[in-house]
Amino acid sequence: MKVTIVTSADNPQVRDMASLLTARGRRKGGAFLAEGFKVIEEAVRAGLVPVRLAVQNEVIESDRMRALLKLPGVDAVPVLKVPRGIIKKLSAVETPQGVVAEIRRPDPLRRGTLRCAGLAVACECIQDPRNLGLLARAAHAAGASALFLGPGSADPFHAHAVNGSAGSVFHLNIVANADMAGLLSEMRAEGTEVWAAAASGGEPLPRAVSAAGDRMLLLLGNEGAGLSPALQARADRLVSIPMPGGAESLNIAVSAAVILFAFVMKNSA
User: Fold this and answer.
1) 22 and 81 part of one domain
2) pLDDT at 110
3) Does residue 91 have a pLDDT over 60?
4) Rounded CA separation 138/128 (Å)
5) What is the pLDDT of residue 22?
6) From CA 173, how far away is CA 169, in angstroms rounded?
7) Which of 105, 162, 201, 264 is deepest in the core (most CB within 10 A)?
8) Domain end (from 42, 75, 105)
9) What average pLDDT does range 41-62 have in this prediction?
10) Do 180 and 201 lie in a common domain?
């Protein structure tokens, strides 16, 4: 482990890492930040070894740090040993764990096929990176092969999306700026049923699940406006979750999780 002691937030390496908290910085640098041991470990397990690590002075000799360094390739990653103030500058959370990694943005094609292998999720325009992170976590847990994001969607490698997913963004094929209409045509041609989620007015989820096959693309809309009528019209089923409690709607990630796991449980029975 090569360690460089850094005491100033004006250090060029710290400035470069801090720039990745912005969309412009991530585009320019082709990289993003991941923080916390769990998230960084998930990145490494997915084959994404950090470019460099910033580690708080009090954390660098910890058991968690020693365990992280034992993962493949991590012992060769340059380490910046920094005070807590610099970690807070690089962090997107209120109580950082003391370790932040710079990671090259992956090419989705590197991690396998973009075709739907049983289950996939597409979102027309999800705008909140926290919601996107939770959605990615639900999709990963349900065994989805891919997550397609339409134009205008949040960046899946925004710090809030990465943290909210608990590292699940590293295990999914994530396709940004996807052509939604073209995607639906391709999936249907392959025999994948397209389900469009609607807050109300759709087929009740239990009935839809009872007739489901073994291939499904779940189509979601926008947090506020929902799914556009044009894409609703292209779906095979418009599906709604029964809400006897009377709430107007569910969070987009919660809705996705309910539908995905209803499908998974039916096909696991």
Assistant:
1) yes
2) 41
3) yes
4) 16
5) 96
6) 8
7) 162
8) 105
9) 96
10) yes
Which of 105, 135, 150 represents a domain boundary (last residue)?
105
Does this model's pTM top 0.70? My answer is yes
Number of domains in the chain: 2
CATH for 72: 3.30.1330.30
Residue type, 10: D
Clarify whether residues 56 and 116 are in a common domain: no
Domain residues for the domain of 165 are 109-268
Is the confidence at residue 262, as pLDDT, over 90?
A: yes
Please tell me the predicted confidence (pLDDT) of residue 37: 97
How buried is 212 (Cβ within 10 angstroms: 0-12 exposed, 13-18 middle, 19+ buried)? Answer: middle
Per-residue three-class SS string for the chain: CCEEECCCCCCHHHHHHHHCCCHHHHHHHCEEEEECHHHHHHHHHCCCCCCEEEEECCCCCCHHHHHHHCCCCHHHCCEEEECHHHHHHHCCCCCCCCEEEEEECCCHHHHCCCCCCCEEEEECCCCCHHHHHHHHHHHHHCCCCEEEECCCCCCCCCHHHHHHCCCHHHCCEEECCCCHHHHHHHHHHCCCEEEEECCCCCEEHHHHHHCCCCCEEEEECECCCECCHHHHCCCCEEEECCCCCCCCCCCHHHHHHHHHHHHHHHHHC
| Same-domain status, 126 and 90 | no
